[in-house]
Structures
1.
Amino acid sequence: MSILNKFSADYNGIRLAVCIPARDQMHTVTTFCLYNLSNVLARLGIENKLFLSHGTLIINQRHELVIAAQEWEATHIMFIDSDMEFTPDCVIKLLDRNLPVVAAAYSKRVEPFVVTAWHKIYDWNSHVQEFDQELITCEAVAMGFMLIDVTVFDELELPWFVIGWHGQYTGEDIEFCRMLLNKGIDIHLDLSVTKQLGHLGTKNFKVDPDT
């Protein structure tokens, strides 16, 4: 079935800013995924623009991307990290949820290989495990694949992205979730998309003379 036949929502008026914070390089697979996404968005009539921020300070990069999206008059910001593998329908599914904040999580790349979403913020043992549901709320989720209605930022005070400390350093994504919770904004997690995402990494392969 063509992806165009899978979705029947009216996307008129949506301006989707696809925002990528990256360091020096982007994974080849992610680039291919973005190419496919752009094609499908165009065929669905969804106005979209790709924004890249190169650097090493993620809090500045996310801030710059939001500002650029606002200046472009985006209605939605789709944060995608430069090491994600996804299909176009992953983004469309999040759009079709029609929620202020909805994300998909993905596996960590180091042990323990748990999903990057937690029922209780700052409780690292509360990671989401119930994959028999499609959509739940949670208190914290990584921002590597998160769709945000741009008006959400009007409800938050600056700075939007900070590094936190709660017995250990916490990333800007966890602290962004804290800001949302403090404003009573629900964080939704799409588990159907979570099961589709890949978190790309590198592995060192060596010759073993005994094999």
2.
Amino acid sequence: MNIKKATIFAVLLGIAMIGLSGCGRKDEYKAQAKLGQPIVRAIEDYYTQTGSYPTSLDALPQKHTGWTYETYTYQNSTNGAVISYMLRYRFGRGGVEYEPNRWIGGDKGHYVLLDVK
């Protein structure tokens, strides 16, 4: 009986540790996502003005200052009629990713939605 209790306790502790492992960096993810918001706005402004997303971040007008995008990875994509993009920043084993209308942060398979505007 004691082995069963110990096993159950170990399994529950493992589940709790897995659930909490990604949560400790949420503030770090949100901070990085906020730094990426001006890039998102620049991409959206470009789309509003041209009707298409830029082929690279270098195509964005120089009027958007106050940020750098050397550390961000940008990719636009077309899936049939859907045209979209993704902006990603990696640090350590994790990072943040923007897909239109949402930021996601995480590492090692643990992801959280970030409320960043």
3.
Amino acid sequence: MTWTIIFGTLGALSVILNGVLIWYTSKILSKLLYTADNLGDLYVVFAGFKTFVSSLYQMDMFHGEPVIQELITRIKNCKEEIERFEDIYELTTLIDEEELIDDEYEEDTKTQEEN
């Protein structure tokens, strides 16, 4: 009879512990997915901004400007740092970089023409 009580207690503790672990795992995964989504968005913004500043640098008026060249270098470094986390943001974000940059550049150009 004592073995029944011991095994029953251990079984109940096991069920409770497994429930807590499942709850904790789901909370951690939701935070990971939130972070991955935000990192993907940050990468997209940096890619578009780098394209914009690079196109600005290519204009005759700003070509050779050292401040813009330094800005391009710093943006490139930030983008490379974000790319280190590619495995994380690929969980939620599918990124086709060339298409993405072209789309953002076209949207920015249309917005500037309207103003």
4.
Amino acid sequence: MIEQKHLAGSFNLSGKSMTLNRMGYGAMQLAGPGVWGPPRDVNAAIAVLREAVESGVNHIDTSDYYGPHVTNRLIKQAIYPYAKDLVIVTKVGARRGPDKSWIHALSQQELVDAVHDNLRNLGLDHLDVVNLRVGGITEPGQESIEEPLTVLADLKRQGLIRHIGLSNITRKQLLKLEQSQR
């Protein structure tokens, strides 16, 4: 086992009690080719997850739309019950089409369903961090992020989400959001 804990340091989420090692694990490639279906070798995927955590990784970046549903189920199978200091960071805002396409999923119902899918497939009663992903696969979109963030804020008030993050947004979207919060 390689001890990675101290190679990149750690940080605290702003004003919060969660300390994350900068060396995390991105679970997207645990799914099969094209981030679709199960991996070619499920046992190897489970071994990779266990080795990552044993090496000092204390945050995993995932989403229930990887696979779809594959990576979160693998994470649960490999390392549940989770270590007390493990932070699972997931994403919502997209879904996979039957043709393996990536489709925006930013309506209230799609976001609520995505949070519940993540909770169920990870075996959790709350999500540590949920990143709202907007825009396309390679670049941010221009749509307003206020409405989807309102949905996630409501889920946070319900206790299903501890922290909300943003993924693939523009500076303009962030500034507009900040102005609306004043």
